[in-house]
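It is worth pausing here to work through a concrete case rather than discussing structure prediction in the abstract. The textbook approach is simple: state the sequence, then state the predicted structure, then interpret. We follow exactly that order.
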Amino acid sequence: MAAPDSLTADTPRGERGQSTSPPATPTGQSPFSGRSWMWILPLAAMAFGLASARRIDDFDGWWHLANGRIMLEQHRIPMADEFSHTKRGVVRVPHEWLSEASLYASFRVAGYPGVMVWRGLIVGLTFALCGYLVVLRGLRSAPLALVILLLGAGISIPEWLERPKILAPLFFVATLTMLELADRGRKWPLYSVPLLIVLWANCHASFVAGIGLIALKMVCRFAEEVGAAGEGVGAPEGRWCPTEVGPPTQPPTRPHGGPASAGQRWPGGATVCLRARALAPFVLAAALAPLLTPGGLHTIANPFSYSGGSSSWHLDTLQEWLSPNFHRPPGRILEVGLICIILSLALSRRRPNAFDLLVILGTVHLSLHSIRHVALLGGAGLAITVLYADSAFGALSEWRGVTNLRTPLAGLRERAADLPRGALASAAATFALAVAVLAIPRDGAFEQCVATENLPVAALEAALATPHTGNLFNQYEWGGYIAYASGGRLPVFIDGRADLYGEKLYREYDEAIEGRSGWREVFAKYDIGLAIIPLGAPLTMDLERDPTFRRAYADPSAVVFVRSDAGVTDLAR
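Step two, the predicted structure:
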């Protein structure tokens, strides 16, 4: 029985019942055989330039730097808390040790500009890989792809921070790329996936997403095999398709009950290069890969504590775990991206295969669930959407009322084909890199590289110079900076490691910083003799009125209080 004719680049609207894969690069053929790859260079350069030009402004990045400093200067991986007086010695899984070490290594090499470049290189590589994935899957309109991925960059900007989670989109897109290459008949990408998961698991807890991707690929491929068997077309013999076989020009048939040959397409257009049973051992290897980390089994269990375990309390408490605010500019850019995805899938002439659809829906869900996940949508989600957006754009140009767009669009394509794309790409990349070079301070001055207006820089110096007894109480967001800048001389009450401190201690912190009735009990319980808090915090008024504390320092952003038994003088003048 002949398979449905759904192998053309754009399936007619009347035949959307058949699931079609994108017109991917033929097996064994380089995706860079044409000039379409030239737009990747300016894309990566612009992403690098934008990310590098941003000042260091993430509160949590400081305690990551402090961990990296321990590793590179003391040659050991910290397995327990060393920065606080409330949780000192409590075991914490070092699931980000490798990214923390690389972050501090960049600081040792080039100071604070090195941290900015570290961030820019990761973002630039992420979007270069997004561009490669788009080209690999089959690119027809480079300008459209560039616009969509630049939209993805705009969505991701809030998460371009100097902390390990910036690596999550890079590893996510890399895993998608390896799976795409495996579908082209390459053997090495699947063998590299477990190694990629090992690297990912030592950098960030989001490695579970990579395991989920390869498992999802296996399930979708199994469903395709079952569907193909039901339509009378068997799966190819063996596990891998030949490396030099390209997509057929005619639909495969199954004469006399024989299977379709490897490298051909099943009904629905899916390229048959790898069977589900070939993916099974790689899924198992990827699932076991996180054992090759300092935390071992605890590394595997750690990510699940955020969704329903001991660390899930902060999902409704901490800002980065809340859903996006669509009334603010970052939320509006995300809204544009979501509309782009909806229109692309609704108007596309090709129906998305199950894997693509589930990846897109998964990244949409994560981005709506929490702000910290929007970069996955901005990178991977929109990269997968590009091909369907291209088909949708073609369908839109043929609608009644807009058919007059076809002539000017065709003219634009002809003019674009005559442009020296290599020179334009090089010029755009050079401009973006020049912006980054000019934006990064050459002298590496702390005040020029760091958003000091958000940190208690002078207040910490005053606190270190002020004699005091007892322990420190500090603003939650400032804990990481105090731990790093004090070099361990001033153990903090709390910092951004919410998974370490737990809900109980955070509630006690909130009780005190908000100046509620129980703040004295909290101070007595933890023997608080020093406080570094924002000038406008409710607790400030309580400490001003309390006879046991006196103000030792104040500036427009922070105030230092010491317990009166320290016998200090007022430094605020």
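Step three, interpretation. Residues 1-23, 26-30, 240-272, 567-573 have pLDDT under 50 and may be disordered. The first helix runs from residue 40 to 53.
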